Amino acid sequence: MDNHSGVGVIDKTAAILGALEKGPATLAELVSTTHLARPTVHRLALALEHHHLVGRDTTGAFILGRRFSELAATVGEDRLVSAALPVLTTLRDRTGESSQLYRPHGDQRICIAAVDRPVGLRDSIPVGTTMTMAAGSAAKVLLAWEEPARMHQALAHATFTAADLDSVRASGYAESAGEREAGVSSVSAPVWGTGGTVIAAVSISGPIERLTSHPAGAHAAAVTDAARQLSDVLRRTEH
């Protein structure tokens, strides 16, 4: 395959991204793999990092950035929503609470599917609503497995801490009460994509009077089951 398009900077950028497909790499390793000059690799890698096409792992090595997962999520959103709706409906019926599906959207999160509680007091989130990543159980889930740089940036303005995210990773779910909105409780769990990354969060939400200030006690099992089921459906329909 001819790797030369005739546009030098694009070819060099593609070479760097191709090298990172194989896993994390230091600057020296990128130079060795791409056979490009060190200043060129350094300049392009920093530019790619600025646009979130390249990130860093906990050791400082370069990795593919979060922008790729965001673009992939957008491309696969129709399939994700189609798969999610029956799962969210079952979750709503099982818990009696409104259910939602969120995915990352830049520095926020967006509701891409929702099934409301049919009667009574409920937390209704219209599809397309963007929300903060600084509060709420879905924000915790979407950040808990994020790349360190983005996680720490979000934590600077969050109502939760790094220790809270440690607990989310350990338990496999998150809960909140009055974080995003006064009087609202929620429980969320991660949806895993085929690349081993968290691509979305399944949630239920409702009034704190009904869900209590610790809604995970009654509903964590149902929410994590729904998130696991959706992850399994996506894996089966990948090809």
From TrEMBL:
Is the keyword DNA-binding in the record?
A: yes
Statement: the UniProt record of this protein carries the keyword Transcription: yes
GO BP field: negative regulation of DNA-templated transcription
- Which InterPro entries does this one have? GAF-like_dom_sf, HTH_MetabolicPath_Reg, Tscrpt_reg_IclR_C, Tscrpt_reg_IclR_N, WH-like_DNA-bd_sf, WH_DNA-bd_sf
The segment(s) forming the HTH iclR-type domain are 7-66
Q: Which UniProt keywords apply?
A: DNA-binding, Transcription, Transcription regulation
Top-level taxonomic group: Bacteria
Q: Which stretches make up the IclR-ED domain?
A: 67-236
Which GO molecular-function terms appear in the entry?
Answer: DNA binding; DNA-binding transcription factor activity
PANTHER family membership: HELIX-TURN-HELIX TRANSCRIPTIONAL REGULATOR, ICLR FAMILY, TRANSCRIPTIONAL REGULATORY PROTEIN
Protein name, as recorded:
IclR family transcriptional regulator
Q: Which organism is it from?
A: Demequina activiva
